[in-house]
Each structure stands twice: as structure tokens, then as C-alpha cells.
Amino acid sequence: MPAKSKDSRPGGRSARVRAAVHRATVDLVREVGAEKVSIPVVARRAGVNPSSLYRRWGTVSALLADVAAQRQDEGAPELLGDLRKDLERAAVWTLTDLSQPGGVAFFRAEVAPDVDERRAGLRECLERVSSRFHAALEAAARRGESAPPLERVLDHVVAPLYFRVVFSIPETNDDYARGLVAELCDCGYGVPARPRQD
Questions:
Q1: In the chain, where are the structural domains located?
Q2: If DSSP codes are grouped into helix, strand and coil, which group holds residue 192?
Q3: Do residues 161 and 95 make contact, with C-beta atoms less than 8 angstroms apart?
Q4: Cβ count within 10 A of residue 127
């Protein structure tokens, strides 16, 4: 089996170049919009030869999809130990992440036109977003509180947020996100689970 090159090692030159290109892409999308981003512009911002970007990604769409798949939830809120508050914070964080400049562009890039890539992108996006809420649900269960299934949170909180942001529906703000959580918790979630009656 051929030995890996030095550039392929974690933390090697290839990793540093990729990180620089990703940072430049995110900054440019937020500054000028995805439609004005090009390979040469990203290369100039990242201090990398354009040929390296063409060789690795080929197109801006592929680059955006790669950035979207690698995005991390930096600055995600910590758990407070209260299901309702934790879900509210996760909902507001999700809305903020999607609403910020470039948020929808990266989501669209993740949902690629190619069927196989679209499935993988949707799966990765769902896993990333689900993890924000799953932690709060697990913590509530450990405290003995009744918690809704993750799928119900996705249906009643996450799906409406994505729908309204993608279609630019007015008044999709923090209060709206908190309201979705309130409606869910008002169904009896977030309270100590009743002991089973034998």
C-alpha cells in the first residue's frame, strides 16, 4: 500500500490549506453573498493558488457543500438543566445559525442537486441539527423529567424554523422560536415523570 504523503497528515499542509479556504469561503459568503463568490476570489482571500482549489473542489458549489458538511456549532449554548429553557436556547441558536448571512446558502449547498450527494448532505445536516436538541432531551430524561421524542421536536420546532427561513416568512424571530418550544412543552413535557402505577 503506498505511503501517505506529508500533506495528507492531520494538521499537515493540506489540512491548513483546507482550513484557510473554508474560513475564506465563510467570510466571503457572509460579506458578499454566495452568488458573488468564485474560486479565484476565495483563493485570493485564503492566500492559495486558484489551481489548488480547482484541483480539490472543482466548483464553488462543491466547495460550499464541503464547508457546509464541516461546519461546527461553535458557540452553541450550554445546557441549563431546565428542559424548556434548554430547548428554547437550542431553537434560538438554530434560527440564528440559519438566519445569519450565508446560512441558507450553506444549507442549499448541503442539499446538493446530485441525488446521492443530496441524501448524504441531508443526513449530515439532520444529524448536526438533531444533536443540538438530543443533548437537552437526554439530560431531561436523566433528571427524571418527561421529554418528547426527538422526532416530535424536529417536527414541531426545527421543521417550522427551516421552512420559514428558507421561504423568508416575516416575523421568524427569537420569540417565534421560543413560542414553538412553549407549545411543545405545554403538552406536558419538562415536568417530573409520573411513577408507573402497577
A1: 6-70, 83-185
A2: strand
A3: yes
A4: 10
Nearest to 107 by CA among 91, 118, 92: 118
pLDDT at position 61 is 84
CATH number of 6-70: 1.10.10.60
7-60 per-position pLDDT tens digit: 445 557 789 999 999 999 999 998 998 889 999 999 999 999 999 999 999 989
Q: Is 145 helix (H, G, I), strand (E, B) or coil?
A: strand
Query: Does the CA dihedral 113-116-121-123 come out positive or negative?
Result: positive
C-alpha cell at 55: 484541483
Dig out the grid coordinates for 121 from the structure: 448532505
Place of cell 421543521: 159
Contact of 144 with 189, CB cutoff 8 Å: no
80-106 pLDDT, tens digit each? 999 999 999 999 999 998 998 888 888
Question: Which amino acid type is present at position 136?
Answer: A
